[in-house]
Amino acid sequence: YRSRRSLAGEIMHALGCEYDEKQVGMFLWGKIPAEAKSSEAIADRVLYEANVFLTPGFIFGSQGERYIRISLCCNEEMLQEALDRITTTRTKQNQ
């Protein structure tokens, strides 16, 4: 659990999201950057550019609009692959 949680935190950092380090449970919630249009926009960008699905918070109601959610129910390898895809995509965009 700790290693999956750590990898999910790295994904949040890679996306510029803030989250409470003391969160517990099977999901990690992150607040999207202020300059981001919406949680749906971030989720769509990550899906189409890195082929990684993140849950946009708006589907849980208006209180979730500025958040994304990462599930910790998958294995470490999947989270590491997601992190690698996201960071590779971001690196390519910055070149």
Would you mind describing this structure in some detail?
The chain has three helices and three strands, in the order αβαββα. It is of the alpha+beta class. A three-stranded antiparallel sheet has the order 1-3-2. α1 (2-14) runs parallel beside α3 (76-93). The protein is globular and about 30 Å long. The mean pLDDT is 93.
Sequence-ordered SSE layout with sheet pairings:
Layout lengths: L1 H13 L12 E5 L7 H12 L4 E2 L10 E5 L4 H18 L2
Antiparallel strand pairs: 1-3, 2-3
Mean pLDDT: 93
Instruction: Point out poorly predicted stretches.
Output: none
Q: Rough shape?
A: globular
Helix content: 40-55%
Total beta-strand segments: 3
Number of helices: 3
Please give the order of strands in the largest beta sheet. Answer: 1-3-2
> Cα-atom Rg, whole angstroms?
12 Å
Taken in chain order, the helices and strands follow as HEHEEH
Report strand %.
5-15%
> What's the main sheet like?
3 strands, antiparallel
Distance between the termini: 34 Å
Instruction: Name the structural class.
Output: alpha+beta
Features:
3 strands, alpha+beta, 95 residues, single chain
Q: What does this entry show, briefly?
A:
Helices cover 45% and strands 13% of the residues. The protein contains three helices and three strands, in the order αβαββα.
